Amino acid sequence: MKRIVIAITGASAMQLGERSIQLLLENDKSVDLILSKGAYEVAKSERNINIPVEPKAQSEFWRNKLRVESGDLNCYRWNDHSASIASGSHKTKGMVIVPCSMGTLGRIASGFSLDLIERCADVHLKENRPLIISPRESPFNLIHIENIKRVATAGAIIVPPIPAWYTNPKSIEDIIDFIVVRLFDSLGEDLDNIKRWVGPNK
After folding, report:
1. Helix (H, G, I), strand (E, B), or coil: what is residue 132?
2. Could you report the per-residue pLDDT of 78-130, keeping only the tens digit for each?
3. One GO molecular function term (predicted)?
4. Is residue 110 part of an annotated ligand binding site?
5. For the chain, percent helix, then strand, then coil, each to nearest 5?
6. How far is the CA of 154 from the CAs of 108, 159, 160, 198, in angstroms?
């Protein structure tokens, strides 16, 4: 089974990345996970969560927090450039960056890889594999828009974390699930254990 790379950067809305991990593992998928250095800081400031940096400890942390035993999860340090996922010879189904900061997006757009997330994104573009980017910023300035255009032209799929009200969400969790489903629809992943919109109630 080809693996899916999930990257969480230091932008607000880490809950989207967390729910992505949970749903993939519940669906018995294989996940390679990278958190940027900034993501650890956001977890502390926004959610009062201390996520371990050491890969094995982090894998145990996520399994305990998400209460999931299925699937396969490998965690990587943000600066581990020797990781297998930094090479095009490491086969993956695709990569999802959620949420994606404007700094990360800008470096991907310029081909300038400072950390493992940016290197993996570069690998997916050069290998013509799916790269799904969920940029989290508002409002966009012209530089942001130009960077989005540049990565889209290079082959990335841009899926902003925009909620839908036609689904009549009853909770924040409903909104998060809608956004995550749309992310993985773009990757061709059908996720079970999640309610999908099937049309207006008659």
Report:
1. strand
2. 999 999 999 999 999 999 999 999 999 999 999 999 999 999 999 999 999 99
3. flavin prenyltransferase activity
4. no
5. 40, 15, 40
6. 10, 15, 17, 33
DSSP state of 86: G
Tell me which amino acid residue 48 is: N
186 is in an annotated binding site: no
Instruction: List phi, psi (to 5°) of 61.
Output: -60, -50
pTM given for the model: 0.94
Secondary structure (3-state) at 55: helix
Kindly indicate the confidence band of residue 198, based on its pLDDT and cuts at 50, 70 and 90.
confident
Written as six digits, the tokens of 193 are 């254990």
Consult the annotation and say whether 182 binds a ligand: yes
Distance of CA 114 to the CA centre of its chain: 18
101 annotated as ligand-binding: yes
Residue 179 contacts residue 161 (beta carbons within 8 Å) = yes
36 is in an annotated binding site: yes
Tokens of 166: 């036609």
Residue 11 among known ligand-binding residues? yes
**What is the topology classification, in CATH, of domain 3-185?**
Rossmann fold (3.40.50)
33 vs 117: CA distance, rounded Å: 9
**77 is known to lie in a ligand binding site:** no
Q: Which residue has the tokens 């990565």?
A: 151
User: Was 153 annotated as part of a binding site?
Assistant: no
CA neighbours within 13 Å on the CB side: how many for 141? 4
Determine if residue 102 is labeled as part of a ligand binding site. Answer: yes
